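Dear support,

I submitted the protein below through the web form. The confirmation email said the job was done, but the results page showed an empty box. After a refresh the structure appeared. I'm attaching both so you can tell me whether what I see now is the final result or a partial one.
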Amino acid sequence: QDSSDDIEDVSLFDADDDVSRRSKKSKIRHPVASFFHLFFRVSAIIVYLLCELLTSSFIACMVTIILLLSCDFWAVKNVTGRLMVGLRWWNQVDDDGRSHWVFEARKVSAQGGKISSEAESRIFWLGLITCPMIWVIFAFSALFSFKVKWLAVVVMGVVLQGANLYGYIRCKVGSRKNLTSMATSYLGKQFLRQ
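What the results page shows now:
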C-alpha cells in the first residue's frame, strides 16, 4: 500500500432480509440500469465511428463523445455497478488530507447465494471489459493513421472506461496484494499445465 493511499474493503449496504430471500435468477431485475449501462458506452462508440459522416464539425463531435463518456462513467460508477453486481468504489479524503480508496461489495446472503442476477452480471462485465478494449483499438488506429486531433478524444475514452474497469476489478478481487497473488497463481497454474 502506498503511504498516501489507504485501501479499505468494506461491505456495501447490509442486505435486506427480503432481498436476500430472492433466488438467483437469470432474468434482468433492473432493465433501466442495464439499458443505460450499455447505452452511453455504445452511443459514444457509434458517434465516434459515424462522426465524420454526420458532420464536419470536430468540436461538436468531440463534445458529444466526451459528454457520453462522462455520463457513462458516472452511471456505471454510481448506479449500474451497485444495482447490477452489488459493487461500488470511490475515493474519499479524510480530515488529515490523506486519500482513501474504498471498494464496496454487497454481502453474500445467509444461504450463500448471490443477490444479483446472472444475466445482469454478464451484461455488466461484458460491457465493462469490451468497450475499453474497443477504445484501445481506436487509440492505436488514431495513432497509426496520424489523426492527432482524434487521439485526445480516444484517450479520454480509454481513461474514463479504463478507470471504471480498474475500480470494479479491485472491488471484485480485493486489494492490490490479492490481485497480484491471483495473477501470479493463475500464471503458475497455466505454466504447470504446459
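Response: this is the final, complete result; the empty box was a page-load delay. The two ends are 34 Å apart (CA to CA).
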